Amino acid sequence: MSALMILQLCIVLGALWLGSRYGSLALGAISGIGLAILVFGFGMKPGNPPTDVIYIIIAAVTCAGIMQASGGMDWLIQLAEKLLRKHPARITFLAPLCTFFLTVLVGTGHVVYTLMPIICDISIKKGIRPERPCGIASIASQIGITCSPIAAAVVAFITISGTNGYAITIPKVLMVTFPACILGIIMASVASYKRGKDLDKDPEFQKKLADPEQREFIYGSSATTLDKKIAPESKRAVYIFFGALLVIVMFAIFQELLPAHETIKAIKDAPEVQLLGSRVKITADQLAKLGVSVDGITKMEFTPLKMNIVIQIVMISAAALMIIFCKASPKKAVSGPVWQSGMVAVVAIYGIAWLADTYFANYLGEIQEMLAGMVEKYPWSIAFAFFLVSVLVNSQGAVVVAMLPLAYKLGIDGWILLGVLPSVYGYFFIPNYPSDIATVNFDRTGTTKIGKYLLNHSFMMPGMVHTLVACVAGYLIAYLYHSMGWI
């Protein structure tokens, strides 16, 4: 590894670190500074921005944002609250499952902020240490991303895998990630069940109760959505949204139902063509991209509509139906947390993935040479790279877009990458993610906290337990399916 390569890597990591310090849009924007230094300062050839993934995120977030504007999200939160209040003693297990499924359905973990105060309130009223359900519930709200059919990480995995010769569908991805992540959540919940001292035996908490103002702050208020009336239009919007998800999954399973279009494909091992009257040569792939048909060089094929296009069409159409038939306000949607957080994710993925692709593409040969032995012997070890990058970039979609092409170029099989896909969630490690910070603030008892030494926080244990269990389970499930010829 040359000194120049190390210097340029430090620039990439420095841009990611600085972006994470500022958060929000800064993560993608400051990545642009790193990209500018590499391209203009060092003369690197710029990589390719992940436009396909970005388009899908925009479509999915627009649809989810419109559903939120219609009041449909309030109904989902209300249903979750009814379940939790019906079984308060089991909240350490039920709360993370509720936040997980909300994320699976909507495709973003930012839908849980309304539910978190309710989880805290139920825990306090039942005498359960809120850190137990809150820590794993915040973790589970992010875990659901690799199990959602419209989440950026899942769609990016399918799109990038397809371009690298590993054809995989949404249902097949979920066949691996869903059971693996559910098992990880259950084991993390078990580990959290008796975590810390009970409230009646916690001297720090009892000291707070001795202060009348603190006691009133902890027990004097109540968080609930059950008093909110849900309009018929709100429920209708949820039905439309779920119908859109069902259509996407149906097309993913039965792709023969998709319309096929005539396209020009390059013939493998076709010779280069020299342009008439010049010294310029052009490859078969370049001819195909230009839409030029040449006998013996290119061929005509009928190819079905790609799933990334299907998702975009279905999501945008569903958003339109909600606007027309469910009284959903577009103005309210763009000011809502779901749409805003989604657009932040777009900018982050745009900048981070473009920066990473530029660096890796220019040093692919050197990276392959360095990692060849380890990857060949322990291909699953790529999970450590996914996890470490996620700690820096705070976006599972960005990790997939930035690292998956490199993993394929290193020769790692697609089924292995699918098995360790849960490892792209590592940003709980440093507790600076909005859902974790919000959860700390929602816990009126103060048991959910960021420790004195930063890393000894309430989310570390459940996050590590889940990641370890989900990756091991995912790898074994993927191996079983692969050996059966299913993936």
Descriptive key words:
487 residues; mainly alpha; two-stranded antiparallel ribbon; two-stranded antiparallel sheet; 22 helices; globular
Question: Can you give a write-up of this model?
Answer:
By secondary structure, this protein is mainly alpha-helical. It is 66% helix and 4% strand. The chain is built from 22 helices and four strands. The strands form two sheets. Strands 1-4 form a two-stranded antiparallel ribbon. Strands 2-3 form a two-stranded antiparallel ribbon. The radius of gyration is 24 Å and the shape is globular. The two termini are 36 Å apart. The mean pLDDT is 88.
Sheet with most strands: 2 strands, antiparallel
Cα radius of gyration in angstroms: 24 Å
Strand order of the largest sheet: 1-4
- The low-pLDDT segments are none
N- and C-termini, Cα separation = 36 Å
Total beta strand runs: 4
Helix content: 55-70%
**Form type:** globular
Order of helices and strands, N to C? Answer: HHHHHHHHHHHHEEEHEHHHHHHHHH
Strand share of the residues? under 5%
User: Count the helices. How many?
Assistant: 22
Decide which structural class fits the backbone. Answer: mainly alpha
Nearest-integer average pLDDT = 88
